[in-house]
Design brief:
single chain; mainly alpha; Tetracycline Repressor, domain 2; 10 helices; 76% helix; globular
Length: 227
């Protein structure tokens, strides 16, 4: 027969399990945060579990208790990036709001992500540039439905005369490219500007320019065709 467990111990066990779960989740998140920079600097192939463990202050064996393989950790990092990205895309699907305000807020959020989490953006960019070999299915299954939802909102805005006719798919592609470049190519931008890194004002100037371009693209008064 199994040993009897006292009433107090029985009551304490769920709380103890909950604490263990919380602590595990916290440590897994901290390991993923460390891994982001390593993957961004070295790429997937150039990164080892040992290097991430060393950066995280853990033994390789200890890290592998939480992430048994490098791919599992890499996918966790990309999951985090995509979760954040999709949350920002979701803000585009508010058709009842004023289009200019929605787009401005989206551009601001994407640039803030580039400024605050450049390593995460670079990991994602490297995965896509490499052909999305590890995360391609996830990107397709999660991004495409939301992109279609956002495009449908643009089409409703246009049909109601709230914005001018625009190819919403390519407009969103261009917003991605313009905002993410401030993370993925910030080193080049800083070199051209003659400083070690981009300043907050650089991001603000970039935001102002991108917003102006996007607002011009959705203006109700279309520009005349070029001769």
């Amino acid at each position: 027969m199994p040993p009897k467990i006292g009433l107090a111990a029985a009551r304490e066990r769920p709380a103890l399990i909950k604490r263990r779960v919380i602590n595990r989740d916290k440590l897994e998140a901290e390991i993923a945060d460390v891994a982001v920079r390593t993957f961004a600097e070295c790429g997937y192939e150039g990164t080892s579990i040992a290097a991430i463990a060393d950066a995280a202050g853990l033994s390789k064996q200890n890290l592998m208790y939480y992430y048994p393989t490098k791919q599992a950790l890499y996918e966790r990092v990309l999951d985090n990036v995509l979760d954040d990205w999709l949350a920002r895309m979701e803000s585009l699907a508010h058709e009842e709001q004023e289009p200019h305000a929605v787009l401005r807020a989206y551009i601001q959020a994407k640039l803030r992500f580039s400024r605050e989490q450049p390593w995460a953006s670079r990991v994602y960019a490297m995965e896509v540039i490499g052909g999305a070999k590890v995360f391609g299915e996830q990107i397709h299954d999660r991004v495409v439905p939301l992109l279609r939802k956002d495009i449908a909102v643009f089409e409703k805005w246009s049909a109601a005369g709230r914005i001018g006719p625009v190819n919403a798919t390519h407009l969103i592609f261009m917003i991605w490219a313009m905002t993410q470049s401030y993370a993925d190519f910030s080193a080049q931008m800083a070199l051209v500007l003659g400083r070690k890194q981009l300043t907050r004002k650089d991001y603000e100037d970039g935001e102002d320019t991108i917003v102006r371009m996007v607002m011009a693209a959705i203006a109700c008064t279309a520009a005349p065709d070029s001769p």
